[in-house]
Design a protein that fits this description.
- By secondary structure, this protein is mostly helical.
- Among the domains are: about 5-165, Toll/interleukin-1 receptor homology (TIR) domain (Rossmann fold, 3-Layer(aba) Sandwich), CATH 3.40.50.10140; about 310-400; about 400-475.
- It is built from 19 helices and 5 strands.
- The protein has helices at about 20-30, 45-60, 85-95, 120-130, 145-170, 170-180, 185-190, 200-225, 230-245, 250-265, 270-290, 295-310, 315-335, 335-355, 355-375, 380-395, 405-425, 430-445, 450-475, and strands at about 5-10, 35, 60-65, 100-105, 140.
- Strands 2-1-3-4-5 form a 5-stranded parallel β-sheet, sandwiched between helices.
Length: about 475
């Protein structure tokens, strides 16, 4: 079963690092990609707490340690006089857990009332020395100047490292290396996924896997012989080298600089210039996907449509719709949220390019579909509310008397978005709005010959009515 979150055991002494451990715990939980287990879950110091602690250490996915200068609690009965923090680390090591440790610098301040005996201090120094001797274990000794800074660094590093480890387990890192991308470049791509992106862990893996695939393709394209002219070949080669070095922003700049050079230069044949421009814009699309800039992708797609159809606004409109549909289908079928964000950005531009009511209604309906698909995956309701607004605006353009089938299909789309909102809310108001929308659409579909769409609308209507009846019988109306 896909892992929505990673289980992290957070270990540290409590008193001297209290602010740091609280900040790290809060940041990990807030990211949505980690569930954080810490001492506060175990209760007061006791033999039972030790057993529970050990069980938890051995069951989580990863171990994160914050090691200061204070020894902390040393449970009785341990011949080596280990602290509970040291024992937690040793349990994690024995269980084969991936461990990430941040060791406070030697000049980290410890309040006078927290100072311990010389013997305890010596044992803690020995523990710190043992950790520092393992270069692959200790991540950093920096960041302890600020609790929030350390929390951000740990969360970002942990997400990056675990994503790369997951891809390595799937064989994707080896595939990337065969394609010319070293492991550290995969790690740089992982860093593009910020903890604040509100993705769960499995979604982050999908997004990274897609980014690695695109990066491999850019490298291959820059290294293989193509039928592009020498100028484009040289640019694509430089883009490939930049990606191999993990210089994604610079690679995008290579594309932009090349496009600017094309704008300034004089190319004898219009057709050759057009092919070059489109090839570079397509390369820019892929770079902007790697940079996770949906608006930039949409602008490049807009330029591609303008380049392909400089004199025909109707064909430019259809070209934008085709590209929006490609990203929409990719996001829907492959589970890529970022592809849906791109589809939404393109749909917004398509609405602006609409020249008449038919185009405007069609573009708004397309926008609603992408918003609703992404909204169904998110816990919030903002996207779904936007989808409802888009469908209602589309119905103002798609008059029933003029385009009855389009009007009916948009009514069904509106009903589906309202029903999803209604299922997340108490009461029946949204569900009743959904029923009204479904019935309005069915009234037209029954006489349209569109049997498939009629069957879908009828199933949706039945489900909404059943939910309303259930809520009313339970007194939740």
């Amino acid at each position: 079963m896909p892992r929505q979150v990673l289980e992290v055991f957070l270990s540290s002494t409590a008193k001297d690092l209290e602010a740091f451990r609280k900040a790290v715990h809060a940041r990990l939980v807030r990211s949505g990609q980690f569930h954080c287990v810490w001492q506060e879950d175990f209760g007061p110091q006791s033999a039972t707490a030790i057993d529970f602690c050990r069980t938890k250490v051995e069951s989580v996915d990863v171990f994160v340690g914050l090691v200061g200068l204070r020894r902390g609690w040393e449970p009785t009965g341990d011949a080596a006089h280990r602290s509970i923090t040291e024992m937690e680390h040793d349990w994690a090591a024995a269980a084969g857990k991936r461990r990430y440790v941040w060791v406070a610098p030697d000049d980290f301040p410890v309040p006078g009332n927290l100072r311990e005996s010389d013997a305890e201090h010596a044992r803690q120094q020995a523990f710190r020395t043992r950790l520092m001797a393992d270069g692959a274990l200790v991540i950093s000794q920096s960041g302890f100047g600020s609790a929030e800074m350390l929390a951000a660094d740990i969360t970002e590093h942990l997400l990056m490292a675990e994503l790369v480890a997951d891809l390595q387990g799937r064989g994707e890192v080896a595939k990337a290396e065969q394609g010319g991308l070293e492991r550290e470049i995969v790690a740089k791509l992982a860093r593009q996924l910020k903890p604040d992106d509100a993705l769960d862990f499995e979604q982050s893996v999908k997004e990274l896997e897609n980014a690695v695939s695109i990066a491999i393709e850019t490298v291959a394209r820059g290294e293989r012989d193509t039928n592009q002219d020498a100028f484009v070949k040289d640019v694509l080669k430089r883009v490939a080298e930049r990606n191999k070095a993990g210089e994604f922003d610079q690679a995008s700049k290579e594309v932009d600089d090349a496009l600017a050079e094309l704008d300034r230069g004089e190319i004898e044949q219009r057709e050759a210039r057009q092919r070059s421009r489109i090839a570079l814009l397509e390369a820019g699309v892929q770079q902007d996907i790697l940079r996770r800039d949906a608006a930039a992708v949409a602008r490049r797609v807009e330029r591609i449509a303008a380049t392909e159809q400089p004199d025909n606004s109707a064909q430019r409109f259809q070209a934008l719709r085709r590209r929006q549909d490609i990203f929409d289908v990719e996001g829907r079928d492959k589970g890529l949220n970022f592809s849906l964000e791109i589809a939404i950005a393109i749909a917004r531009l398509t609405v602006r390019h609409a020249q008449n009511s038919d185009q405007h209604g069609t573009a708004l309906n397309d926008l609603g579909i992408s918003l609703a698909t992404l909204g169904e995956r998110e816990s919030g309701t903002a996207r779904l509310e936007e989808a409802v607004a888009a469908y209602r605006d589309a119905l103002k353009e798609r008059a029933r008397e003029r385009v009855p089938l389009d009007w009916a299909m948009t009514q069904n789309n509106l009903g589906a978005a309202l029903q999803t909102l209604g299922e997340r809310e108490s009461g029946t108001a949204r569900l009743e709005e959904a029923v009204a929308a479904y019935r309005a659409g069915i009234e037209v579909l029954e006489h349209s010959g569109a049997g498939h769409y009629l069957a879908v609308a009828q199933r949706n209507l039945a489900r909404a009515e059943t939910e309303i009846a259930s809520r009313r019988s339970n007194g939740s109306d």
